[in-house]
Sequence to fold (151 residues):
Amino acid sequence: MRAVVQRVSEAAVTVGDRILGEIGAGLVVLVGVTDGDGHDDARTIADKVAGLRIFADDEAKMNRSVADISGSVLVVSQFTLYGDARKGRRPSFVRAAEPPVAEPLIDQVVERIQSHGITVATGSFGAHMHVRLVNDGPVTLLLETDSGRMV
Fold:
């Protein structure tokens, strides 16, 4: 499982003219699922997101988590995180998990982050979405798991 985590001052996801999810200060998390990912990967990614200390403390050091600042998380499914562009000009997405595998794992990531007492907004799995965000810092991290362990 892969996740791109961005610290934001605000973010929203829309489908057409409808806002599906919107947050203020917090994190945007784009999540991609590959075949072989399971419950342990969803748990590991979610726990890492909830605990990342990437928000400034009173001394301007990255020492606070999204929960510490009473922030929110916007989770958006992103199968293109498993795009392979090494050959040719059009990426291959054969490593991206099929929707029946990926969607429940994305839902588990959301539920696990919520279990930490964090408000989570989401997009719509499989929809063509527009994600608007203001990256704060900028701070962007790439997380990846393999068999439930961070790699």
In short: The chain has a mean pLDDT of 97.
